[in-house]
Write a structure and sequence with these properties.
By secondary structure, this protein is an alpha+beta fold. It is built from 9 helices and 8 strands.
Length: 222
């Protein structure tokens, strides 16, 4: 998977490269071959393969990338692979040299995360609740918040400094850390901070996240 160049076609031009152009309205981004290799299959009607089929296929055919945590595939790569904001901000990265480390952060660190402009109001709305029962979650998730004072599934946060490259001009990336996936969860966490003052529930001191960063084992630059 790491060897040789890939031949990718765009419009009527053939490119011998690891990236291919992608256009959305008047914008152009470059998509790395490793992101294309993570693409869910679609049938003739454009319906995407189920996650269980996708995950098994990825683990069998893309051994290195298959080592990413299952929750990363399930919450982000599979459902949002062709999302415009995902393509614009993250598809240019060489995922051969990326890892997702499960770590814990405190509220103060999470409260400083950069959220892309389009999703900031989304986070703010979910940060405005005064009662946990108002969360737009299934009962299982609400019970988890009540019992544990944190989210059930760790969100994904990008360590931009670790990439150690010049950021593409078309991307909306702000150092040092950016929320990739988990905007509802971040909003609910902020609501929980406010709800905690009532004494009804206690916010956990630490919260699990998947820190997306350049692998410490990588021998080449992205």
């Amino acid at each position: 998977m790491r060897g040789g160049k890939q031949t990718l076609a765009c419009s009527r031009t053939v490119h011998s490269s690891n990236v291919m152009p992608h256009t959305q309205k008047t914008e152009m981004t470059l998509i790395h071959r490793t992101w294309l290799e993570l693409k869910p299959n679609e049938n003739n009607d454009g319906n995407q393969e189920y996650f269980s089929e996708y995950y098994n296929r990825i683990c069998e055919t893309k051994f290195e990338l298959g080592e990413f945590p299952k929750e990363v595939y399930e919450q982000w790569i599979h459902p949002h692979h062709k999302n415009h904001k995902t393509l614009k901000n993250y598809s240019w990265i060489n995922f051969d040299f990326i890892e997702f480390e499960l770590v814990t952060w405190d509220f103060e660190s999470l409260n400083k995360l950069y959220v892309i402009e389009q999703f900031q109001s989304y986070v703010n709305q979910r940060a405005s609740f005064n009662h946990i029962e108002d969360f737009c979650c299934i009962d299982e998730d609400i019970d988890y918040w009540k019992t544990n004072g944190t989210w059930k599934i760790p969100p994904i946060i990008l360590d931009i400094d670790s990439l150690n490259v010049e950021l593409p001009s078309w991307s909306e990336l702000k150092k040092p850390f950016q929320l990739v996936e988990g905007h509802s969860r971040l909003g609910y966490l902020k609501s929980m901070k406010n709800i905690e003052t009532s004494g009804e529930f206690k916010l956990a001191e630490k919260h699990k996240i998947y820190l997306m960063k350049k692998s410490t084992k990588a021998q080449q630059s992205i």
